[in-house]
Design a protein that fits this description.
The chain has 107 residues and is an all-alpha fold. The chain is built from three helices and no strands.
């Protein structure tokens, strides 16, 4: 969407609060201090069933290669050319130095 400068500024200023006003993003029933109790109360008032119990067991984090395979159906564990074998990390190369600064002249 392309907007004129005036329309962009108008839309942007709709989000600016006047003096003396306070954002309430971190207050109310979603505030951190009593969020769980207040959400339970809201669910009871709305007649919703309680959420399923969560166990304290953390799920095993999936490697990015596994997530890529789930999304695309292509495995990063196999050779991209022959689709056989198992790719292994042999070496991780160090990052190259930043080229944004000019080299220091030591003369």
């Amino acid at each position: 969407m392309t907007l004129s400068a005036d329309e962009f500024i108008r839309r942007f200023l709709l989000h600016v609060l006047p003096d003396g006003f306070q954002r309430i993003r971190y207050y109310g029933f979603l505030g951190n201090r009593y969020r769980r109790e207040k959400l339970e109360h809201c669910r009871r008032l709305l007649g919703m069933p309680p959420p399923p119990e969560q166990t304290n067991v953390l799920p095993v984090e999936k490697d990015y290669r596994d997530r890529f395979e789930e999304l695309t159906g292509q495995s990063l564990h196999q050779c991209p050319q022959c689709r056989q074998g198992h790719m292994l990390v042999v070496e991780i190369l160090p990052r190259s130095p930043c080229r944004c600064a000019p080299p220091i002249d030591s003369s």
